[in-house]
Amino acid sequence: MRIILFLSAMFFYFAAQSQVKKLNAETTIQNVTIFSSGARVERTAAVNVASGRSEIFFAGLSNQLDQHTVQLKADANITLLSVQTTRDFLSERKIEQQEREFIDRTNALKDQSDLDQKLLEVCKNEEAMLIKNQTIGGQAGVKTIDLKDALEFQRQRLTDLYEKELEIGKRLVSEQHDLERNKAQMQEISKKRDSINYVVTALIETKESRTVNFQLMYNVQDAGWYPTYDVRVREITEPLNVLMNANVFQRSGETWKNVPLQLSTGNPNDNATPSSLQPWLLGFYDPSVSVRSQGSQGEISGRVANEKGEPVAGATVTAEGCGNVVTTDNNGYFKLHNMPKGGMLLISAVGYNSRKVKAVTGYISIALTPGSNALDEVVPTGYALQGKVAGVQISNSQKYRKEESIQTVSVATQYQPTAVIYRTDDKYSLESDGKTTTIGIKQFEVPAIYDYYSAPKIDPTAYLTARVINWQDFNLQSGEASLYFEGTYLGKTYIDLASTADTLSLSLGKDNGVRVSRKLLKEYSSKKFIGSNRTDERQYEISVRNAKPVPVNITLVDQVPVSVTREISVEDVKAAEAQIDKESGIATWAVSLLPGQEKKLEIGYSVKYAKDRKLVLD
Fold first, then answer.
1. Is residue 378 a contact partner of residue 305, using CB atoms and an 8 Å limit?
2. What ranges do the domains of the chain cover?
3. Strand 503-520 versus strand 552-559 pairing type
4. Which residues 6+ apart lie within 8 Å of 150 measured at CB?
5. Does residue 112 contact residue 181 with C-beta atoms inside 8 Å?
């Protein structure tokens, strides 16, 4: 009997040990690393685990979770048998007060609209009945006084009905407009908070009962950050003042509450496979084709944003007439190659009104206005206006100097083989609403060489440029820059570091303090006919004057024509003190001017060709 009881006890013991216990883990977000596209979330949980096998559920995870990136770690000696990631279709999304108010308001508007629609039908039916029953009196006729009363009644009643129908119709239009606005806003709110439907299930085995600290990590989509800059120049004798901002956004379906942020320049979605070379096929060079195409095509880059400066990802940019189509990236940037001059760009995006802009080579900023969808506001944060906050030390460079007027948040910079990580000491709360949170991560002054540039043949304006040498020391990232000169906002440009050499050049806009003009010297320009040939002579005078109180350096460029056929001959090229590129015909002067000084330059040439042919020289 004792043996039977002992065997039964052992059976129930091993049965209990072999039974899988189900446990729910309450996780909290400890750290978030935000990439240029996507983010990595780190959650922790402490779970009391009994000996044997346990199935632990990590619920309430982002609906943007990438299943291939899930990692689970523990601080105990346990055996991790399996990890599964599944969608939880049975869980109900938490409806918050703001969303409940919109639901109630939408239902009330719909009920009122339905009621007005019924009232309009009643009025229409009464109107039809009055019109249908206009015949009165039958064969016996009707008295004049009765006819007058009947007509007066019908006139008054139809007038009242028409006024009521008009009133109801106006209400219906207004109600429909409000319903569409509420519907669009509801779509935005429904994406915001706690839209969670992923569960990670871990099957573990342990030999002892204890509290196990788990660390769950996974990547999410629909999040990221992009840099922007404020570049200020007080005087051309002072260095550039640069403020680097990190613009952070996320719509991952989960709220990141009071967590430290890490900003990584890496992108886990990039292709990790190196490119391979393809066959290099040689063909004969046709100079006429090269020259004809030169100047007619170019590259256009830019950024598409909404009215508040937030990036519009996935916008379609179409070059009309040439079929060139691209879409913007997560930060709203795009680039078009081989663009003909004089074309138009059509920009369209879901929820925004389409817009056409002129295709101008270089960098452009395009703002789209909202269509039916409402837009969220930008939440600027991250600046401390009082007190001293430690800045970023960059390679112990002596050129770095912290600005004292506006302090950035405390950031530590960590260099990795393939990326740079900025670690913020402050904690942030980011809702899953797509709003852009701007954080000033570093501010510094950069020594720059200031020069002016002008091509008076096409634009008699002097543009101030700043050349930054050894810009790599400051660990910049490609991004949009807002330019300020002498306290005036000049516009935006794009710092494209991928195509920048050792020197970074920034255009700081027009400066009316340096005046440039170009005119044709008629006394030195003529047309001559000799035999079967014709010779056209041209000579121009370029005048540049420094009206600023400080010396300036300016680069002036002009050009002489370049012949691509033996039937045209370019001779007598005159451009004193200029360097002329023989292949392009570009003439370049480097001029230094003292305050108030003016200098005049001349460029001339003659073109010889058959007089029965036409040639455009103007």
1. no
2. 22-94+197-220, 97-190, 223-271+283-447, 521-610
3. unpaired
4. 136, 142
5. no
| pLDDT at site 374 | 39
Which pairing describes strands 379-380 and 437-446: parallel, antiparallel, or unpaired?
Answer: parallel
By C-alpha distance, which of 123, 133, 125 is closest to 153? 133
Pairwise CA distance, residues 345 & 362, whole Å: 13
Return the closest-CA partner of residue 254 out of 425, 27, 97, 84.
27
Element (H, E) at 6: helix 2-18
Cα-based angle 201, 75, 68 (whole degrees, multiple of 5):
40
Q: How far apart are CA 605 and CA 573, in angstroms?
A: 4
Q: Is 334 exposed, middle or buried (0-12, 13-18, 19+ CB in 10 A)?
A: buried
Name which of 98-112, 134-148, 388-402 the model is least confident about: 388-402
Phi then psi dihedrals of residue 147, to 5 deg: -65, -40
Give the fold, CATH level 3, of 223-271+283-447. Immunoglobulin-like (2.60.40)
Question: Is the CB of residue 35 less than 8 Å from the CB of residue 15?
Answer: no
Q: What is the pLDDT of residues 195-204, one digit of tens each?
A: 567 899 999 8
Alpha-carbon distance values, 551 to 206, 453, 480, 554 (Å): 78, 15, 30, 10
pLDDT-derived band at 400 (thresholds 50, 70, 90) equals very low
CA-CA distance, 183 to 110, in Å (whole number)? 11
130-146 average pLDDT score: 62
pTM of the model: 0.60
Q: DSSP string of 187-241?
A: HHHHTTS--EEEEEEEEEEESS-EEEEEEEEEEESSEEEEEEEEEEES-TTSPEE
Please state whether beta strands 297-306 and 362-368 pair in parallel, antiparallel, or not at all (unpaired). parallel
- Distance CA(499)–CA(202), nearest Å, equals 47
Are the C-beta atoms of residues 478 and 498 closer than 8 Å to each other? yes
What's the pLDDT band for 136 if we cut at 50, 70, 90?
low
Q: What is the DSSP letter of 478?
A: -
